[in-house]
Amino acid sequence: DVKVTQSSRYLVKRTGEKVFLECVQDMDHENMFWYRQDPGLGLRLIYFSYDVKMKEKGDIPEGYSVSREKKERFSLILESASTNQTSMYLCASSTAGTGTDTQYFGPGTRLTVL
Amino acid sequence: GEDVEQSLFLSVREGDSSVINCTYTDSSSTYLYWYKQEPGAGLQLLTYIFSNMDMKQDQRLTVLLNKKDKHLSLRIADTQTGDSAIYFCAESGTGGSYIPTFGRGTSLIVHP
Predict the structure, then answer these.
(1) B52 to chain A, minimum CA–CA distance in Å?
(2) Among A68, A95, A102, B28, which is most exposed with the fewest C-beta within 10 angstroms?
(3) Are B43 and A48 within 8 A, CB to CB?
């Protein structure tokens, strides 16, 4: 079974803090993604990566950066957290070249910025 | 650009069938998916259908695809309280993209 884990289930930070969210997958997937999920807005793609050290902006990259130094790990960084970044953050991974683009999701990190 | 739309809420009685509907705009979609998100958890793939199929059945789940109308539906037979969750419709393959486009999710509430 594919397993995608996220470093924290719940996180509380203060405005202006630097925040790291980590995601690890154990299936050797090439593609990894970070989404945020807000009520009524569904999933919005922040950043994605299709290979080590590669990153691409998604729909809402402002205020975020990412790092992919190893294939299994994809980190989301909030350089200076703000209250409007309070949200549920979901990491996902998928493999390339198998036909479907099925994504496998982690359990999510609920981040509260005070 | 591509868009996937679904209603936000559906309420059904336990034991009834649930039908969750989804429409999408891009006719070049290759795969269409249904994901389930239980409270406090990430999304989990329920099933998917290839665009050249019109139906797929898996136990209590039936997926119907009307490609002409760009309409996808998920039918859950004999709905149970454990089926209460948010259901997301998604499509991929448009323009060669491997990144699915998700709908906003339908909250299914099952009451006794």
Answers:
(1) 13
(2) B28
(3) no
Only one residue has tokens 């679904």, namely B6
Nearest to A69, CA basis, from A86, A85, A49, A83? A49
Say what the alpha-carbon torsion angle B87, B91, B97, B99 is, to the nearest 10 degrees. Answer: 0
Q: Which of B108, B83, B82, B95 is nearest to B27 (CA)?
A: B95
**Residue B96: predicted pLDDT:** 66
Cα(A13)–Cα(B26) distance, integer angstroms: 40
User: What's the CA dihedral at B90, B24, B104, A101 to 10 degrees?
Assistant: 10
Shortest Cα distance, chain A CAs vs residue B69, angstroms:
22
> What amino acid occupies position A1?
D
What pLDDT, in 10s, does the model give residues B28-54? 888 899 999 999 899 999 999 998 899
**Mean pLDDT over all residues of chain A?**
94
3-state secondary structure of A3: coil
Per DSSP, the residues of B28-92 read T--EEEEEEE-TTS-EEEEEEEETT-SEEEETTEEEEEETTTTEEEEEESS--GGG-EEEEEEEE
CB–CB contact A45 B104 (8 Å): no
